[in-house]
Amino acid sequence: DTGVSQNPRHKITKRGQNVTFRCDPISEHNRLYWYRQTLGQGPEFLTYFQNEAQLEKSRLLSDRFSAERPKGSFSTLEIQRTEQGDSAMYLCASSSGGGRYEQYFGPGTRLTVT
Amino acid sequence: AQSVTQLGSHVSVSEGALVLLRCNYSSSVPPYLFWYVQYPNQGLQLLLKYTTGATLVKGINGFEAEFKKSETSFHLTKPSAHMSDAAEYFCAVSDRGKLIFGQGTELSVKP
Q: Within a 13 Å sphere around the CA of B16, how many CA atoms are in the beta-carbon half?
């Protein structure tokens, strides 16, 4: 069990550029979640997958955001035309089920939009 | 809709003193509740969880929490604080799988 990994750990980009983050979950976990955390706040849910199916998206996830999990393994989160308000920590988590099952978090990707 | 309120954004205790971090939840169904800890520039680590059964839940690093349905609370305690406990603590409730987090409580431990 190598845990959840995320790449890159840090990303600095200029406003208007596109960025993509990758999350590799714990291998046997079928659920994968994305959260966003701003300074001094708790994480906020963005979207989640069960295997390759994206089952729920938050209203926080504007049209500029897209997430995929093409083979039910790793996932990518892309932000197009970044804005300064997108600056945050993006956290990925995985679990072996919903509800009562605990989620295991990766170290996060810190995005800074200048 | 489920929600979580953490009372006190900052708590400061002396080393060896009792730690009490407060969490109240709102849920229309029997809740699944979690406490996570976050160290600077790191992801979240699970401390403990309540799903069903015993209302007093023991977790890692000497932490425990008690589920009180009548008070809609799930407060986190530790009998004796250690310097290494200084971190941000988040209470969360599961909403059909996704977690709804409180705003967090920063715990400081004074020597």
A: 1
B32 touches chain A (CB under 8 A): yes
What is the tens place of the pLDDT at every residue in A49-102?
999 999 999 988 889 999 999 988 999 999 999 999 999 999 999 999 877 889
Q: Shortest Cα distance from B5 to chain A (angstroms)?
A: 11
Handedness of CA B63, B69, B38, A56 (dihedral sign): positive
User: Helix (H, G, I), strand (E, B), or coil: what is residue A103?
Assistant: coil
Burial of B79 (0-12, 13-18, 19+ CB in 10 A): exposed
Q: Do B44 and A110 touch (CB under 8 A)?
A: no
Report the amino acid identity of residue A113: V
Q: Determine how many CB atoms are found less than 10 A away from the CB of residue A95.
A: 23
Query: Is the pLDDT reported for residue A1 higher than 70?
Result: no
pLDDT of B13 reads 97
Top residue of B6, B21, B41, B44 to mutate, by most chain A CBs within 10 Å, is: B44
d(CA A107, CA A91): 7
Identify the burial level of B108 via C-beta atoms within 10 angstroms of its C-beta, where 0-12 means exposed, 13-18 middle and 19 or more buried: middle
Give me the residue from A42, A102, A108 closest to B43, CB to CB. A108
Backbone angles phi, psi at B43, to 5 degrees: -75, -170
Between CA A77 and CA A18 the distance in angstroms is 11
